[in-house]
Every structure is written in C-alpha cells, then in structure tokens.
Amino acid sequence: METDISIPSVHHDPFTVTGSCTLCSRELTSSELLPILMKCVNFAAIKHKDQRRKDENETPYVNHVIGVANILVQEGNIRDPVVIVAALLHDTVEDTDTTFEEIENEFGTEVCNIIKEVTDDKSLPKLERKRLQIENAPKKSHKAKLITLADKLYNLRDLQKEIPVGWSQDRVKEYFKWSKAVIDGCRRTNFNLERELDLIFAERVSKDRERCACKKPLI
C-alpha cells in the first residue's frame, strides 16, 4: 500500500539464474528475459481488458501501462527489466482483482515490492490517497520513483492533448498542481524524465498566464 513502502529482502527472483554458489549465479540474458516480458504484457492485457481511459475514444487502459514502460525505455534510457515489468504491472493491484501475492508468485518479490510502493490504498478517501502520494514520494525507492515519473509524464501528456470526459478546467489545474508536488518529491532520479515534466509544467504556466488577468502562476 502507499503507506507501507518498506522493502523486505528479495526471496523470489525470476530475473536471476541461481547456481550452487555465488559465482554460478547470473542475470538472465536478453533472450531469456523476452519470455518474462511477453508474459508480463499478456498478464497486464488480460487484467486490464475491460478497462478504458477517460478520453472520448475510450482508449484501452492497457495502452497506458505499455506507454509508461515505453517512456522509461525510450526517454528514460532504463534497461532494468525489473523496472520495466513493474511499470507494466503498476496499476494491476490498484485497479483490478490482482493481489500482491499473485504478482510475487508470477514476477518475483522485487517487482511486487515496487508495485506496493506505487499502489494507493483504495480503502482511504481519495483526498487522503492524493495527500499520501505527495508525502511518500521522497521515501520511495529509486525504481519506484522512476515509475512515478513516467506515469505522471504519460498522464500529463494525455491532459495536454485532451481533457477527460467529465473533467472541468479546475480539475485539470488541480491535477497539474498535485502532480508537480508528487514529482518534486521524486527529484534527482532521472534527468531526462524530469526535464520533460518541467517542460510540460512551464508550458502550462505560460498558458495559464495568458488566460488569467491577474497573471498569477498555476504551479
């Protein structure tokens, strides 16, 4: 949960071949990682199959998690398969019937721990969940911060293109403001991703000043 971001030691690690001694242990090769990655994409597609984004076209929700993983690879230059797998699965527990136990059994303890860090406790009120995201952002692991940065970057780019169905301009402004507070807690994690986020924030401030007579910045 978002309030429980402690990371126990890794027990189940499908990304490493464990030999009889430390010297025999090794990380998987690219060809060995491919089946795990495809298993993960398929898992996410099945779990999110009935979900849609809130745009007018009702884009399949799985596009979001794939997009977040793609941002990490293409723009963040992240090559850690644990981070990419966790990015693909980052909304499964929060938004589907997936359990942490299921994630751990299928994809390992480290992936599960990262997902715990980025999963909101849905039993809490929405405003409290948002407050905790801001409060806990600086406490997250480096890998969880990477996913948070890419997730917010994807969502903010979506907002730049189209306002979700049912959202007001005030709600959009609040999302930008809240997102910046979360991102500020993840600073010094990945220069490329943070630069792209800062460009979005700067563009938003500029547009807001053009609209607002008092010229007060949004963020």
Automatic annotation (TrEMBL):
SMART domains per record:
HDc
> Can you give the residue ranges of the HD domain?
61-156
Q: What is its EC number?
A: 3.1.7.2
User: Pfam families attached here?
Assistant: HD_4
CDD domains in the cross-refs: HDc
Under the heading PROSITE patterns, the entry gives: HD
Q: Please write the reaction equations for the catalytic activity of this protein.
A: guanosine 3',5'-bis(diphosphate) + H2O = GDP + diphosphate + H(+)
The cross-references to InterPro entries, in alphabetical order and at most eight, read:
HD/PDEase_dom (IPR003607), HD_domain (IPR006674), MESH1 (IPR052194)
Q: What does this protein do?
A: ppGpp hydrolyzing enzyme involved in starvation response.
What family classification does the UniProt entry report for this protein?
A: Belongs to the MESH1 family.
Q: What is this protein called?
A: Guanosine-3',5'-bis(diphosphate) 3'-pyrophosphohydrolase MESH1
- Organism source for this protein? Xylocopa violacea (Violet carpenter bee)
